[in-house]
DNA sequence: GAGCACTGC
């Protein structure tokens, strides 16, 4: 191993943050059990005391700061903060302490842990809210966990979040769209509610930029004379990770194929290193399946070396039962090797991992506002991501991380932080959310990271064409407000509202629910023929949307049977979610005063409703095209019907699609045949080039 | 006849 590997000089867990402005407290995991603790090393370096965690948090919340940035690296300590705050009386008088997480699963598990530590029943003093699940007791719940998306939704009814005395945002370094919107809004709320305390928990590496974002210099100067005013300089608290040390190894020379390098490294670890499971980070399903096969083949070739390996793939497309194999205890005498996408970086935690192999790449979404196309490309990860991956090796005991790139590459080429999701996504959903919260000057909104202006303008343009915004870029009434309230992509929401006019809401909310899923089919490699046959049983001449209606009917007629799903290559969990979303939409429509109506067999009605939402995604089959090439009406972009569509090789003259998948070609997914006259009917303004100058009002 | 990193309301 020494031939290829060079030990790294970087520590995976960065410890302290330099701060020339003062006001920074450091907390050491080794601080004594009560009162103030001091860490000699840190004190010498920083000339600052080190407080005990609890004392530091309370000192800051009570006396000093309106905003506290907790810089930590997987310490797991943030579950204690809400408990400290409750003890200190921040949840008294009907006030609630809110704690957000970016993921539903994290909300459930963290709230359960806190309830257990406090010895209370979940849903009483400690509760949680995620979509479709409200486990809180109004008047009783003092600490409430929720996804940041749910908190944003709550702001539509209560823009200043008046119920909450403290809001803690966890995992802020992940920089998801909803976290970034939330942070921007919280900064605004703080000006109106100086008593609101914010605690932002972030990986150490991002703490400095978070602090800069919340440091409102203008306001601070104005308040300088007033000693009693809350301090607007955010305090940074650095918490040392509780994880074990992870030794980092780099390649001495760059490799030409990370796939082959990963396979070689796994075999080498198995050969030379003591017991402990291996976690390998690759980019996607193709790579992962190939790596699993290569390792297994090698195991057969060299029985003495590679036997005893249990190689398992892990990605979100796998069925639930296949994913669960990862968590089964490793049989005696075996070494588990999990080959995974980024899902193991944040969403799933594996116990027993001692070795991590990091390819240095992941699939990332990029959005081109000019063509309005989102692309999924393999791209280098950030230093922050590399550290997070390495940290996965140190959960049970000291571990090792093998990076399939050189140290020089890590130091000089890798960017420190990932590009925030905001800057590489389509923003229609975010723009309408801000509009509905009364943020009129979207381009001037104070984001933690500003999105490209082109993406903003594109989003405003789309919303205008949908009739959601008027010419002054204000939400239209009632359409704009209703679209904002429906928790789906605005084009889908517009389709639902139009279904009221075309009297087919019953059908459309089912289609809307299915379109909100990744896919309702199970991935069926190796049984392609059977899979295609199963699909044909539901296929409709109109296209994929009506096909989904047939699947849903079948599912309901089967009594929502998982067996039926299995037989028909349908994802049971996805169908259950479709049922939930359909239910949520039906309640929403009732609130809008719309009743559910069925168009029965008249599919023309529902196709017109679909066009009313998706007219911008219309395409025409190229005349004389031998290979089924279409061109989009908007940008004359060459596109093709995806082979998974029921309209593949049928090639109707005019179609609309729900989304594009871009690989070597642009493929349309979820395709429906239309009559071009419907386009003019749905969006005369869009197709007759009478649009006003959209950039003017912004 | 080809392919879907990962969340969320």
UniProtKB/TrEMBL annotation:
Organism annotation: Dioscorea cayennensis subsp. rotundata
A matching Pfam family: WHD_HA2
Protein origin, superkingdom: Eukaryota
Recorded catalytic activity of this chain's protein: ATP + H2O = ADP + phosphate + H(+)
Classification via SUPFAM superfamilies: P-loop containing nucleoside triphosphate hydrolases
Protein name: RNA helicase
InterPro entries per the UniProt record, alphabetical: AAA_22 (IPR049945), DEAD-box_helicase_OB_fold (IPR011709), DNA/RNA_helicase_DEAH_CS (IPR002464), HA2_WH (IPR048333), Helicase-assoc_dom (IPR007502), Helicase_ATP-bd (IPR014001), Helicase_C-like (IPR001650), P-loop_NTPase (IPR027417)
UniProt keyword terms in alphabetical order: ATP-binding, Helicase, Hydrolase, Nucleotide-binding
Gene Ontology MF: a single term: ATP hydrolysis activity
Record domain Helicase ATP-binding: where: 58-223
E.C. numbers: 3.6.4.13
């Amino acid at each position: 191993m020494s031939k290829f590997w060079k030990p790294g000089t970087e520590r995976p867990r960065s410890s302290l943050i330099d701060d020339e402005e003062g006001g920074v407290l450091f907390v050491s995991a080794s601080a004594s059990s009560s009162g103030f603790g001091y860490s000699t090393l840190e004190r010498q370096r920083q000339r600052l005391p080190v407080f005990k965690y609890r004392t530091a948090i309370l000192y800051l919340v009570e006396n000093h700061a309106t905003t506290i940035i907790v810089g930590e690296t997987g310490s797991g300590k943030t579950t204690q903060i809400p408990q400290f705050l409750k003890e200190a009386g921040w949840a008294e008088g009907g006030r609630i302490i809110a704690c957000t997480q970016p993921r539903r699963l994290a909300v459930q598990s963290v709230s359960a842990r806190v309830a257990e530590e406090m010895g209370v029943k979940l849903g009483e003093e400690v509760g949680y809210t995620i979509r479709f699940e409200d486990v809180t007791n109004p008047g009783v719940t003092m600490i409430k966990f929720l996804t940041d998306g749910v908190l944003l939704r709550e702001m539509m009814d209560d823009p200043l979040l008046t119920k909450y005395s403290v809001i803690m945002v966890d995992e802020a370094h992940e920089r998801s769209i909803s976290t970034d919107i939330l942070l921007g809004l919280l900064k605004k709320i703080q000006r109106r509610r100086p008593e609101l305390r914010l605690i932002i928990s972030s990986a150490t590496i991002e703490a400095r930029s978070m602090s800069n974002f919340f440091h409102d210099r203008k306001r601070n100067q104005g308040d300088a004379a007033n000693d009693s005013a809350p301090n607007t300089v955010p305090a940074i608290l650095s918490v040392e990770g509780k994880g074990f040390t992870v030794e980092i190894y780099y390649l001495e020379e760059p490799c030409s194929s990370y796939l082959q390098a990963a396979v070689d490294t796994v075999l080498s670890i198995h050969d030379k290193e003591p017991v402990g499971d291996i976690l390998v980070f690759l980019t996607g399903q193709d790579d992962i399946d190939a790596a699993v096969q290569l390792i297994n083949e090698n195991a057969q070739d060299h029985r003495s070396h590679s036997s005893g390996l249990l190689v398992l793939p892990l990605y979100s497309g796998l069925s639930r039962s296949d994913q669960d194999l990862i968590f089964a205890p490793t049989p005696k005498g075996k070494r588990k090797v999990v080959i995974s996408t980024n899902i193991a970086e944040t969403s799933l935690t594996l116990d027993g991992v001692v070795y991590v192999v990091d390819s240095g790449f992941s699939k990332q979404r990029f959005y081109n506002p000019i063509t309005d196309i989102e692309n999924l490309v393999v791209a280098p990860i950030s230093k922050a991501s590399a550290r997070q991956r390495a940290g996965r090796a140190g959960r049970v005991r000291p571990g090792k991380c093998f990076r399939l790139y050189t140290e020089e590459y890590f130091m000089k080429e890798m960017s420190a932080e990932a590009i925030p999701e905001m800057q590489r996504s389509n923003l229609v959903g975010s723009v309408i959310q801000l509009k509905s919260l009364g943020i009129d000057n979207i381009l001037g909104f104070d984001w933690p990271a500003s999105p490209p202006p082109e993406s903003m303008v594109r989003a405003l343009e789309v919303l205008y064409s949908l009739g959601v915004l008027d010419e002054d870029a204000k939400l239209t009434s009632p359409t704009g407000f209703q679209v904002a309230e429906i928790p789906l992509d605005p084009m889908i929401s517009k389709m639902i509202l139009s279904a009221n006019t075309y009297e087919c809401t019953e059908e459309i909310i089912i289609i809307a629910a299915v379109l909100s899923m990744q896919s309702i089919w199970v991935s069926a490699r190796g049984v392609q023929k059977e899979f295609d046959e199963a699909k044909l049983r539901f296929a409709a001449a109109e296209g994929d949307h009506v096909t989904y209606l047939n699947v849903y009917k079948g599912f309901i007629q089967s009594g929502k049977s998982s067996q039926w799903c299995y037989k028909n290559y349908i994802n049971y969990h996805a169908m259950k979610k479709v049922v939930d979303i359909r239910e949520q939409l039906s309640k929403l429509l009732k609130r809008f005063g719309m009743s559910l109506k069925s168009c029965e067999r008249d599919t023309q009605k529902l196709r017109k409703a679909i066009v009313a939402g998706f007219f911008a995604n219309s395409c025409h089959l190229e005349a004389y095209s031998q290979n089924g090439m279409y061109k989009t009406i908007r940008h004359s972009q060459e596109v093709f019907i995806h082979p998974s569509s029921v309209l593949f090789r049928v090639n109707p003259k005019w179609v609309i699609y729900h989304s594009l998948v871009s690989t070597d070609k642009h493929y349309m997914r979820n395709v429906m045949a239309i009559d071009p006259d419907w386009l003019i009917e749905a969006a005369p303004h869009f197709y007759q080039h009478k649009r006003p100058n959209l950039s003017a009002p912004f």
